[in-house]
Amino acid sequence: MQQRLIVYWCVVILTLFLATVLLLSIIGVLPGMDFKVREMLSAQQKNTLSTMTEQTDIMMARSISLSEDITKELNQCLTANGKTFSDLNDNSQLIMDLEAALYPSLKSALDVKYCSGVFVVLDATVNTKTEYADTSRMGIYLRLSDLKAVNTSKQHVVFFRGNADIARAEQVQLHNRWNLEFDTSALPGYEQIMQFDGNRLVESCLWTDRLELSDTWEDVQLLYVPVLDSTGKVRGLCGMEMSNLYFRLSYPMVEGSCGNIVTVLAPMDEEGNIYLDKAMFGDTKETYLSPSGTMTVKKGKYYNTYSTAFGNYIGRHELLELKSCNGMPLAVLTLTVSYTHLRAHETRHDLV
Known about the structure:
single chain, alpha+beta, eight-stranded antiparallel beta sheet, 17 strands, 35% helix, 28% strand, elongated
């Protein structure tokens, strides 16, 4: 009889304990699935933000250094030839001499391995009589090709824009969509850079949205910095490219306890709308994330819910201190499985 009484009270105490734990979990006093998801997302967001901040900081620092090198080479080339900047127009030999002098600085910048391309565009053209003279500008554009990994040595470099004789002299293969000059109408933010009137190049760094690279199937995001002459006048721009393939390789999908985690870099307006059609995407396999439309945000206690026309995701985001051509800040998003999927996972967890 005494043993039965002990068993009875043990069952009562255990039942009360479990009921209390369940109640506390429901009202949020004890951590449940939401708390675990928050910790998982917070840890990944911290890692992603640190990596992306390092990458963008290095890209901006190297672009500023590249601009200063180009200014030096520009002044030396013009002085050695007894010419002024305006003499570049319609002077193919002078343009080729200048581009040849600029090539080593561009190649050195590309070797930093934090980007997929480097470029310089100067406000001059080889032929002012063509119908495209208003938007055709001299320069060099080097790109990495056949990317299979990032931050590795001996990447394959191709010559995308610039004088083909320089590519042959440097034994660099021409891109299959090579062109002699840039089309500045395909460079959003070009006019903004040309109107820069500040004193510090660090204040001038400007990022584009994701855009289609002219004459190719590739999407890229570009970083611009002005190129100045010896008097401080803006004579063009230079910078770095981050292709969507490079971004995807840089930010692979991460396995989490509640689903795979993906990275997105996107413009975000004051109302919290995220523009996926202008965003860069890490590896998004099997997540149904698409580079189209907009995404809205609903803030929650443990994480945010991000809604698109194709479904919902949960995650976190933070704004980067970067200036973009469209005036909107760029947000780093860490996203995982849909809200519905999470609830299904939580239900299965509770039933075990």
